[in-house]
Amino acid sequence: MDTPVTEAPAVPHSPAEEDAPWLDAREQRFWRAHLEVGKLLEHQLSRELQAHNLAINDYEILVVLSESPEHRMRMTDLATSTMQSKSRLSHQITRMETAGLVLRQECPGDRRGLYAHLTERGWETLRKVAPDHVRSVREHFVDRLTDEQLDAMYAALAPIAEHLRALRGRS
Amino acid sequence: MDTPVTEAPAVPHSPAEEDAPWLDAREQRFWRAHLEVGKLLEHQLSRELQAHNLAINDYEILVVLSESPEHRMRMTDLATSTMQSKSRLSHQITRMETAGLVLRQECPGDRRGLYAHLTERGWETLRKVAPDHVRSVREHFVDRLTDEQLDAMYAALAPIAEHLRALRGRS
Q: How far does the CA of residue A100 sit from the closest CA of chain B (Å)?
């Protein structure tokens, strides 16, 4: 998440800007906190995954494949699922193939192309890394919220996720 | 944000994993909603900025520079502020220079290197784009929260941001 300012720029507004619904101070501090936590948390979790020689995107791929039937997924679906472009995903899978974590294979009789498979080594890596990663998520985020905060935030976020998912489906 | 699974993998645990503090179902659905909203929101805001030929990272750079004294910042500080590596920032600034939005210049008498300056065109671009961007942030996020939700989420996020900022400072 990369977009801080949504306040009025500190200059006289042009007429077209009069209608601009600038965030007020309360909204602004919330929006900035949201962006900052997203970014700093990703940074911290990435750093801790580096101890296992994994990028955070690699971890995500391992997780998604581990949850798929037969531990494999069509490359195009994997791109959608991880919200990456096909070309970026392709580069990432190449790196992960070199590391022995995944394998790219055509599916006989399926014209729709290549699959990424989780290898035995990829699966073992995920099993080894996951407990540390969960501890990081707890330490830096989840355990810093009360049960009430966690439930309230879920109630606030779930309909927003649904809205954004629907928008994305239309695109 | 890219890291979904923090549940127990669906296999028998090895002894080392017995201690792993897996997220329970409630924590898990919250964590996934948090990641999903972060990712989908960034995707949606990026799409809407594309109408202005701006990447979301470009927008952030424009904002940060517009808020800096004399509309400029040392490249190393800009990298820290935007949480990018120096090499990645350098590539981005090159692209933005080509588009006429920023200018890289040495500061006479300052050995600590290059500054990025916001150009007049960069400033005009920000002023033109900001109102639409704010509308996007409202439409897809802020206006979907009640005042109470917004304040509750800020109260939850602010100490986490502080914790993560402190950790980062130590690194």
A: 20
Residue A23 to residue A69: CA distance in whole angstroms: 45
How much is the pTM? 0.86
Interface test with B, best of A57, A132, A160 (most B CBs within 10 A): A160
- ipTM confidence score: 0.86
Position A113 scores a pLDDT of 82
The answer to whether the Cα torsion of B64, B67, B71, B74 is positive or negative is: negative
Whether B20 sits inside 8 A of A131 (CB atoms) is yes
B80 part of contact set with chain A, CB < 8 Å: no
Reported as a single tens digit per residue, the pLDDT across A88-102 is 999 999 999 999 999
What is the distance between the alpha carbons of residues B130 and A14, in angstroms, rounded to a whole number?
Answer: 12
Q: Is A42 on the interface with B (CB under 8 A)?
A: yes
Q: Return the structure tokens found at B43.
A: 């995707």
In chain A, what's the furthest Cα-to-Cα distance? Answer: 64
Q: State how far Cα B55 lies from the chain centre.
A: 12
The distance from CA A125 to its chain's CA centroid, rounded to whole angstroms, is: 19
Q: Does B139 touch chain A (CB under 8 A)?
A: no
Distance (Å, whole) CA A133 – CA B20: 10
* Residue of A151, A154, A167 lying closest to B44 (CB–CB): A167
A165 contacts chain B (CB < 8 A): yes
Packing angle between helix B56-66 and helix B86-98, nearest 10 degrees? 90
Question: Is a pLDDT exceeding 50 seen at residue B147?
Answer: yes
> To probe the interface with A, which of B30, B56, B123 has the most A CB atoms within 10 Å?
B30
How far B113 CA lies from chain A's nearest CA (Å)? Answer: 25
In this structure, how many other beta carbons lie within 10 angstroms of the beta carbon of residue A12? Answer: 7
The amino acid at residue B89 is: L
Per-residue confidence (pLDDT) for residue B3, from 0 to 100: 43
